[in-house]
Write a structure and sequence with these properties.
Radius of gyration: 17 Å
Strand content: 35-45%
Largest sheet: 4 strands, mixed
Number of helices: 3
Number of strands: 8
Oligomer: single chain
Length: 137
Amino acid sequence: MAVNDMVPLLDVDNLKESLAFYTGGLGFEMIQDWHQDGERRWCRLQMDGVGIMLQQFGTRGGAKGVGVSLCMFCDDALELYRRFIANGIDAKEPFVGNGLWVTSVKDPDGYGLDFESPTDVAEETTLSEFEGPEVEG
């Protein structure tokens, strides 16, 4: 018997808003969903090898996102950063930490999402420092 996958389940306040953030903004694809009383209450999303589940529990309430950060390792965090910005997502400027380019976003419920990719650029370098000043033509 093998354990093959781990997919975090995030409790969200507004599933429609969260779904728009993850699919339209970040580029996840919905691969499963469940409806109750004619409304979507749960879904599983996938981006390449990473899965996330979202569920709107309704009456559960309580703090969400506090102290939670999901780290997703990818091929090119800089490319994702540029995609997120183009999609209107407030992504933090990438920096190098622990030998990785890291860009971070917060979802509508405050969950931290870090996208990280390997690099040999010096620690604590920011993207703007790495690319230098823009050349005007």
